[in-house]
Amino acid sequence: MTYSPLTTYTLRLGDTCLVLAQRLTGWCGHAPELEIDLALANIGLDLLGQARNFLAYAAHLQGEHLDEDQLAYGRDERQYHNLLLAEQPNGDFADTMMRQYLLDAWHVELFSRLSQSSDSQLAAIAAKALKEVRYHLRFSRGWLVRLGDGNELSQQKMQSSLNKLWRFSGEMFHADELEISLAEQGIAVDPRTMRTAWEAEVFSGLLEATLVKPTQAQYRTGGKQGLHTEHLGPLLAEMQYLQRAYPNQQW
Amino acid sequence: MSNVHWPLYEVFIRSKQGLSHRHVGSLHATDEQMALENARDAYTRRAEGCSIWVVKASEIVASQPEERGAFFDPADSKIYRHPTFYTIPDGIEHM
To answer: What average pLDDT does chain A have?
Structure first.
């Protein structure tokens, strides 16, 4: 199936939320404390709601009797357009918090700008999501600092998570022709323009958390083009199992 | 490695239309900020326009049930201490 540029762009935004939401549900009942369990579930729910909004809009744009469920459960990994960072495994709590922080900082910047989009539907989804991602950032930055500036072991774990995930951060500011052209029409946000604001947040967060910014700059990209790490396939196999075993049912 | 202490916090919430903060429950958190965030998740579902107070349980001094007599009884026998002799005009609600 070929998607229009606007549909593809909408899917990219939705897929990142959907895949990250799926990852966060993996923590359910396994978080370090009851309160964290609750908060992670809450963030997962917010992200799933955002994913539904984007996917429903993408389905609407595409027509052809598509709906959000068919998009979530009927596409394989080559048709998923999420950022590589979102599909990375939960790892330990430090890995999850670092992944969350890097993406939350990006989401806050993205949705602040996207809420000014000339596409009223995208603007409305972003405006609603903005309130939620601000809360997510507060939570993840809180934990970034608590763990980074915690004890020796927690700082070490946070630093190692940062070193591990940093190579996926460049993709957030990588623009392809599709995004540049939509940005010129005032619909999309040009990812390159978000880097300064994101760095301002993240560098100050890392400083406060006494962590060292990695110098390595060989960024991994490809998620938006459907070229994923080896982690997405198994994630989708688990997520889509029932729908593929019993397709087209009402639940 | 010493584990972080998670003390008990009591949570008071004033809803959007509410007049005063009401005690709604308690939770464990490492500090006031985390207690606020957790209270928001657990007790308000992040409803806009409500106010949350959290206070460490150890900060609260409660009256003792066994001192009930000394604390509350004398007032009952002195009816002049209660404004019960006024008639309330018609049309006054919620008294």
So the answer is: 96
